[in-house]
Each structure stands twice: as C-alpha cells, then as structure tokens.
Amino acid sequence: MNGSNGMGRMSTEHGAAAQSCGAEGRGCYGAVSVVSGVLERLLRETSRDGLVRVEDALKILKLVGRGTYELDVAFDGLEKACRLKFQPGRGKASSRDNPFRRLMVRPFETLLSGEPPSYPRAFLTNYFEVVEAACGDKYTEYDRHSRAILQNLLVAHGHNLVWDTFYAETRTTQVLAHALRRLLRFLETPPGQWVWVQAMSKPSPTGARPSAEQADRIRETLAYTLRGFEGPGAAARQGGAA
User: Fold this and answer.
1) What percent of the chain has pLDDT over 90?
2) Origin, by domain of life (predicted)?
C-alpha cells in the first residue's frame, strides 16, 4: 500500500478516529513516529558535516512520499486497526447481547479501554458475580426489563440502533438507577462487603487479580453515577422514581 494513499483513505473513511489517535505511542501518532524516524535516518545519511542541502532534503521528502517498506508496514497496520475499530456496525445494539450486563458496566465503560485498560475486561466476571448477588431475585426482573426496552428500540430503529441510544432511553436509566441503588446498599451490609472482597479478589481466567485500587475505583465510579441520578432534578430527568 502506498503510504500517502493509505493516509488519504484513513482520513476520509475514519475521521472519527482523531479522537482516539492522540494517546502517546499509539494509533496515528505511532505512524507519525515511524515517518519521523525514516526522515531522520535519511537526513543523517545525506548530511555533510551536520548540514543537508535543501535540494537533498526535498529529494528525501519526495522519496518518503512515494512510500518505503517501513512506512508501508506502519500504514498497513494502522489502516487495519482503524478498520477494525470503526468498521460499520461496530457499537450497534443487538438482541443477541446482554443489555442488562452492558447497562451495569456503563458507569465505568471508559475504564475498560486503553492500553492497558484501567480495569481489564477479564475482571468483569468478578464484578458480575457481585451484581448477581446484590440483585438476588430482582436480577431476572432487571434482565427482562432491559431486554424488553432493547427490543422496543430495535423495532423503532432497526439495525441502526446504537448502544448510546439504548443508554439514553429514560426507561433504561430508571433500570440502571434502581439496580445501582440496590447494589450499593447491598455493599454497605456485612454480607455484601464479604461478597465484594471474595469476588473482586478472585483471579480472572488469565490468572491476574484485580488490585484493591482497581476495585475501589469501580465502587467509587458506581457511587458517583448513582449520586448523579439522585441529585437535584433527577426525578424529573428520569420521569419519576425507579
């Protein structure tokens, strides 16, 4: 793939990628680093007594513009990563997914992204164990309500439905607020504290264990989210109490 053509396609097809390419050492900046490295090496090889003629510099720029093996590899890898992340349908809601579980992860969703993520997805099994213990018999009801809401939205929006629309639905926020309230109240009790410590300290399928700091951050984020629901005007935003 020609380097310049690859960049052109990415800027056209993946304009939204700019929001995720600013992390140091990743994404588009990783490709820019490769370009800078190639330019630096060629300039040093061409220099005489530390100086490079303008004509030689222009030749180097044209050479790099036509593409080198290193740049082809870098741009090809970046394009594949962008296509994977921003492929059509990514982020679309599907009835095959578990909407209640996705809802209970929503408050700390940003912690699941990044390299490395603040809270690896492999630890979600630990968290869901706590959620199920806290909800008890209500878990089935929350799950049923969430699936019904999702199904109604799918009828209205079809395959264009995205998860953000599901999260923004008033009925969905009511389910989330009610479930979070139940979860955090459970965690204030001795049985709840025991379940939290036991579940959140279990090793994941990869063998890693959540640290105390990671578990505390999740709990703080859940509490912060609930305070947002219960703040001034929350009842009006939710259309009434959950």
Assistant:
1) 39
2) Bacteria
- Do 70 and 163 belong to one domain? no
Q: How confident is the model at residue 53 (pLDDT cuts 50, 70, 90)?
A: confident
Spell out a b/e string for 155-173, using b for 16 or more CB atoms within 10 Å of the CB, else e: eeeeeebebeebbeeebbb
- Residues 82 and 1: beta-carbon distance below 8 Å: no
CB–CB of 160/112 below 8 Å? no
**More confident of the two residues 52 and 3:** 52
Q: Which two tokens stand for residue 166?
A: 């599901």
Whether residue 80 is found in the same domain as residue 116: no
49 is in which domain, residue-wise?
28-85
Please report which helix (H) or strand (E) contains residue 108, including its range: none
Same-domain pairing of 114 and 182: yes
Q: Are residues 110 and 227 in the same domain?
A: yes
How many domains does the structure of the chain reveal? 2
| Same domain (yes/no): 42, 120 | no
Cis status, amide bond into 116, omega within 30 of 0: yes
Task: Round to whole Å and give the CA distance between 198 and 133.
Answer: 12
Residue 172 lies in a domain: yes
